[in-house]
Amino acid sequence: MTLPLLRSRIRASISNASLQAALDGNALRRVSGRDAAFESLPDWRERRKRAHAVRADVIEHLDEYVDQFIANAARNDVIVHRAQDAATAVSIILQIAQSSAPPGRQALIAKSKSMVSEEIELNNALERRGIKVVETDLGEYIVQLRGEKPAHLITPAVHLRRFEVGQLFHDKLGLPYTEDIPTLTAAARRLLRDVFLTADVGISGVNFGVAETGTVVTVTNEGNGRMCTTLPPAHIALMGMERLVPSLQDLALMLSLLPRSATGQKLTVYTQLINSPRRPGEVDGARERHLVLVDNGRSRLRSSPLKEALYCIRCGACLNVCPVFREIGGHAYVGSDGSIAPYPGPIGSIVSPGLLGLQQFGHLAQASSLCGACKDACPVDIDLPRLLTRVRAGGSEGTSSERGVGLSHLSRFGLHLYGIIGSSPRLFTISQFFGGLATRILSTSSDWFRIPALTGWGYSKDFPRVASKSFRQRFQPSEPLPEAQPAPPAISPPPAAVQENALPLVEKFTREAEALGVVVRRVAAAHLSETLINDLKQAGAAEAMAWDPIEGLDRSRLTAAGIALTGEPDPLLKVGITGAAAGIAETGTLLITSGPGRPLTASLLPDVHIAVLPASLILGSLEEALSRPDIPAASASVLITGPSRTADIEMALTIGVHGPKQVVIYIVE
Fold first, then answer.
1. Can you give the pLDDT at residue 25?
2. Phi-psi region of 562 (alpha: psi -120 to 50; beta: other; left: phi over 0)
């Protein structure tokens, strides 16, 4: 019997005032942020339908897309490993880590957030072999210090308040106690910077793989994902085999939906597209890239009635709107052995039993009101309530004959009886009459006799009285229903929307970038070098990392002014100067691509990133930017949308986590 254990976790969560406050704050901000972000995407419903169709096509033809993806990744010199199960995936990663370690010591691994790693319990397996694994996402770092599992797909420390994090850093790291969130974030930045710079291996998750190019895509806000894939000599990308899109244009579609659903952003701060290891002449980027493609039950799930769950893009939106998750949090979703499910919430109540077993996690589907809010929030339109009812019916393994997973025999009998009565209008009407009559008699004769008292269902709410009359009996229309009227003519866009679309690209880019905290300066080409020299001197920066060349910038004038420029990664420098391959007006985003003389770390390691963007390279949309031929040609590219940021502690926005604290863009006209 697993429901009593689940119920005890639920009761503990509901009675935890600190947890309730943390969950309420997360839900309110996430939902309002998502709604605001989608207001800027008027065709989001059409995009949602297209995204559903893309994901359906991928899962329907998964074998073909996987073969295409592997072939193209291997052509890009990525070493591809296929793992049928968790043990195989762990073994592969262990071998790579051991071969990457210097003689005489175990490897140090800098790890970015990956739900697949939680699914296969990677950290515990590596640590048992003496390998040190450090989580570098702020939320993941916090829960690792606490010895806990992530409590949310996107916000791992959603269950904690600032005073708990302050006490944790005091106890575990020896820092003075503080509840100031920027101070706590800065402490994590200092401590984890050494891990990035000395790690032998970087491990990251994968948000999407692009079949037509073999590209691995990661999206992060803090910059730790870029650190893990750029600084260590070896990089391991850990990917669920279903996380594919056919093309870069399909990727653009998914990226227009994922960040809006996940964090309420038009685009995450860093969207990295990785094609290959570093190439000749490049000074940064992993020398060796591995891709571990994990099945671990996905093929079985694809052949079951729950295969639609594989459409999920892991945005976490269904968790934020779920009335159950918003009360109990992620750690209440426990298996039959008491272990916390790797995937919580509505999607987790389908994916966890689908991948890891009905007996272990099938009862989680009972923790749902089936209200449909999760389906409404899903950016790829997964019918989550329907899938939850299938799990309840024991349908996660295709041929399973078990019904009413996680329920007692009495509950199963009651549901079976209800199914018989509910299928007959006559029987349902009769039962409703006698049920209402019995409830009124018993409730007046015995105060203690209430349905919640017998079932335990009413721990936090009362069970409604059974109606003595059916809806049909009570509904008496006083006048005929009105005839259907023809649909009104389409309403033209409001003037504001027209003005928005009519804005010149430079002005639209400037407005979007400044809304993210970016400093935008429009500079005449003839004055670029002089302006940059003056700004660097005012900032007290006598040395900077810089690309060579940067269009329109005269390096000799900077050298003559006493400003030293280097192309080698240097973590001590405070300013990095790069060019840009393009700007995206709709999101205020920079596109930069790697290559000889173009170190990506110049946009990552320093506190200040200065980018030189010719006005002629500003494009209207993400789709246009991802159509550029230099993206699949480069070893790596990155879309940068504002300075590094996090909201992992009490949803408080904090600027400057692992990447730059300030981004300055010179638009050269």
1. 87
2. left
Could you check whether the bond before residue 549 is cis, i.e. omega within 30 degrees of 0? yes
Burial group, residue 173, by CB count within 10 angstroms (0-12, 13-18, 19+): exposed
Which residues partner with 132 through β-bridges? 108
Task: Give the up-direction half-sphere exposure of residue 418: CA atoms within 13 A in the CB hemisphere.
Answer: 8
Q: Which two tokens stand for residue 105?
A: 């010591």
d(CA 570, CA 159): 37
Predicted pLDDT at 576? 97
595 secondary structure, DSSP code: B
Per-residue confidence (pLDDT) for residue 420, from 0 to 100: 85
Rounded to an integer, what distance in angstroms lies between the CA atom of residue 249 and that of residue 129?
A: 42
Phi, psi of 223 (to 5 degrees): 105, -10
Asked if 541 and 572 count as a contact pair (C-beta separation under 8 A), the reply is no
More confident residue, 263 or 496: 263
Identity of the residue numbered 106:
Q
In this structure, what are the phi and psi dihedrals at residue 265, rounded to the nearest 5 degrees?
-105, 150
Which long-range contacts link 302-305 to residues 24+ away (Cβ below 8 Å)?
302/59, 302/62, 302/242, 303/398, 304/354, 304/395, 304/396, 304/397, 304/398, 305/390, 305/395, 305/396, 305/398
**Pairing mode, strands 636-640 and 270-274:** antiparallel
Task: Confirm if 136 and 658 have CB atoms less than 8 A apart.
Answer: yes
What is the DSSP-derived secondary structure letter of residue 622?
Answer: H
- Each residue's pLDDT tens digit, 427-471: 877 877 777 666 666 555 544 444 444 445 455 545 555 555 666
Which pair of tokens denotes residue 417?
């009886």
For the entire predicted model, the pTM comes to 0.88
**582, two tokens:** 């393009």
Q: Which tens digits make up the pLDDT trace of 553-571?
A: 999 999 999 999 999 999 9
Looking only at the bridges linking them, the beta strands covering 608-614 and 662-668 are: parallel
Helix (H) or strand (E) holding 428: helix 425-445
Distance (Å, rounded) from C-alpha 92 to C-alpha 216?
19
Let me know: does 394 contact 366? Beta carbons within 8 Å: no
User: Stretch 164-170: mean pLDDT, rounded?
Assistant: 98
Task: Evaluate whether 591 touches 213 at the Cβ level (below 8 Å).
Answer: no
Distance CA(545)–CA(283), nearest Å, equals 12
Which residues are paired to 290 by β-bridges?
79, 236
Judge contact between 298 and 242, C-beta under 8 A: yes
382 CB contacts (<8 Å, ≥6 apart)?
52, 308, 309, 311, 312, 347, 375
CA torsion angle for 330, 266, 271, 541 (degrees, to 10)?
A: -110
**Interacting residues of 65 by C-beta distance below 8 A, sequence separation 6+:** 58, 211, 244, 246
* pLDDT at residue 400, as a whole number: 45
Contact call for residues 167 and 18 (beta carbons, < 8 A): no
DSSP-derived secondary structure for 337-351: TSPBPSS-HHHHHHH
Domains of the chain, first to last = 1-39+311-397 (no CATH), 505-668 (3.40.50.10420)
